[in-house]
Structure formats: C-alpha cells, structure tokens
UniProtKB/TrEMBL annotation:
Gene3D superfamilies with a match to the protein in the record: P-loop containing nucleotide triphosphate hydrolases
Pfam families for this protein: ABC_tran
Keywords on record: ATP-binding, Nucleotide-binding
One Gene Ontology molecular-function label: ATP binding
Organism of this sequence: Clostridium punense
SMART domains, alphabetized: AAA (SM00382)
Top-level taxonomic group: Bacteria
Transmembrane regions: none
Matching InterPro entries: AAA+_ATPase, ABC_transporter-like_ATP-bd, ABC_transporter-like_CS, P-loop_NTPase
Domain annotation ABC transporter: ranges: 7-237
Annotated protein name in UniProt: ABC-2 type transport system ATP-binding protein
C-alpha cells in the first residue's frame, strides 16, 4: 500500500443481531481524495462511518486509519479526524460559544485558541451574532453550521461528513462545497456520505456506491458513466440499486392522494 493511504478497510462486515448490514467492504482511500459515499437509506453508510470512528463496535474485518489498526493501537489517530454526525447530539442547552470551546478543548486546543477560531468561523458562515446564544434557539441550518465548525476546529487530516448539507440553504451549500474543495487541495481526505446526488456528483473526485451493505460501484463520476452509460449520477444510482419504479410509485401515490 502506498503511504498516501489514509483509510484502509479490509473485508469489513457488521451485523445487528441477525441482520447483516455490511457484507465485506474493501476500500483504500488516499490523501486528498473527496469520496462521495452514497447509497439508499439503510445501505450501511452511517454504520461504516461510525465503525471507522470507533463509535460502533463488534465488526469483523480490519480498519486502519493513517496506518493504525483502530481496534488495536492507541486512539491517537482520533485527534486527526473530524466528524459531522448525521444525527447530532449537539448540546442544545449550551451556547455556540460554550459548545465550540468545549469541543475545541476536547481536541487539545486552549480555550482562547478555540474561542477566537470558533468566533471567526461563525462570522464567515454568517452566524456570528448568535455566538453567545443557546443552540436550542438555532434553526436546523445554523446547527449544521455549528457542527461543521466543530468538526474542523482542530484542523483534522481526515474529515468524515455524514449528510453535512442537511438544512443548509443554497448559498451556504455553495460555501461549504468550496470549503471542501480547498480542504482537499490542502491534502485533507474527505469522506462524504450523502443521498443528495447532484452535490456528490459535483464535489467528489471518487464515488463509492453502497447498496445493501455491498460496494456496487467505485470510481470517478466519468468512470461510472462510461460503465453504466446513464446520464446523471441519480440515474446511475437508480440503475445500480435496481430502482426503476419511481414513475409508477409517484402516479399511485398521487392517485391515493386524490381519493376522497
Ligand atoms: P444509511 O446510513 O446508509 O442510511 P445505516 O448505516 O444507518 O444506513 O443503517 C444500515 C442498516 O442497519 C439499516 O437497516 C438500519 O436499520 C440498521 N441499523 C443501523 N443502526 C442500528 C442499530 N443501532 N441497531 C440495529 N440496527 C441498526
Ligand atoms: Mg445514514
């Protein structure tokens, strides 16, 4: 393996009770890649990320981050990772300032450093006025911005984003997309999980499609297009996940809506 491999996954399987949700995943992810990790609801995207982050245990197979086996070695690698969770257990009763300085300190920053940095980043995302307000008063998009900031305060080398754009308005989506480009140019690895195809299509330089716990496609958007001969990522997605009844479903749905 080349030494620019930042995440290495071998034969990763996971079951919840009887249910196998990951069925032998193999991935080698390189420094500077923006990975779009896509797949239908329930495919196993969040589970993969939570295993890599050490939040979910009991998997089979091997996961190495920056050369360290996450089940064996020290947890030092966690300092080099940032994470935006899908469902945020953000501490609503704290102010953004309290929350962000707390997270910053967890990652080894001084209070002062975290405080200055967090406030600047909030300013750049247009929510500085709420720095001292309780997170419980924030809109979904504002909370999402706080989460994105908290994942980046310690300048991680690898960033895991699980549906990071949920709740953001169109302008903010553009800013975050651009931030991700710049981070990857700085050599950071970005692992981006989403079911929103058009964004993934635009920002990822490699797309990994997970269906039913298995990787069913892995390549650049152009490579996927050549293999599948379908236009958009959404169409490729539908074809590879065997989903072609959307018109029928929509028609039937509307006809039920019209029943009186
Ligand atoms: P995705 O993020 O791709 O939508 P998930 O990784 O969240 O998918 O879930 C994969 C499958 O595992 C789903 O069928 C989900 O219901 C199941 N699952 C996820 N977490 C748990 C859990 N803690 N206990 C039992 N089943 C789970
Ligand atoms: Mg998920």
């Amino acid at each position: 393996m080349g030494n620019d491999v930042t995440v290495e996954i071998k034969n990763l399987s996971m079951s919840y009770g009887e249910k196998r949700v990951l069925k032998g995943i193999n991935l080698e992810i390189h420094q500077g890649e923006i990975i779009g990790y896509i797949g239908p609801n329930g495919a196993g995207k969040s589970t993969t990320i939570k295993i890599i982050l050490g939040i979910v245990h009991g998997y089979q197979g091997e996961v190495k981050i920056l050369g360290q086996d996450i089940s064996k070695d020290s947890k030092e690698y966690k300092r080099r990772i940032g994470y935006v969770p899908e469902i945020a257990d953000i501490y609503d009763s704290l102010t953004a300032r309290e929350y962000l300085t707390f997270i910053g300190e967890l990652y080894g920053l001084t209070f002062e450093k975290a405080d200055v940095k967090a406030e600047k980043l909030m300013e750049l995302l247009g929510i500085k006025d709420s720095y001292n307000s309780r997170i419980s008063s924030f809109s979904k998009g504002m909370k999402q911005k706080v989460l994105i900031i908290s994942s980046l305060l310690h300048n991680p080398d690898i960033l895991f984003l699980d549906e990071p754009l949920s709740g953001l308005d169109a302008n903010s989506v553009m800013v975050v997309k651009e931030i991700l480009f710049h981070l990857s140019k700085q050599g950071k690895t970005i692992f981006y999980s989403s079911h929103i195809m058009d964004v993934v299509e635009k920002i990822s330089n490699r797309i990994i499609l997970l269906n039913n716990g298995e990787v069913v496609a892995d390549g650049s958007f152009n490579e996927l297009k050549e293999n599948i001969k379908e236009g958009t990522l959404e169409q490729i997605f539908n074809q590879l996940t065997g989903f072609n009844q959307y018109e029928t479903i929509a028609e039937e749905f509307v006809s039920v809506v019209e029943e009186v």
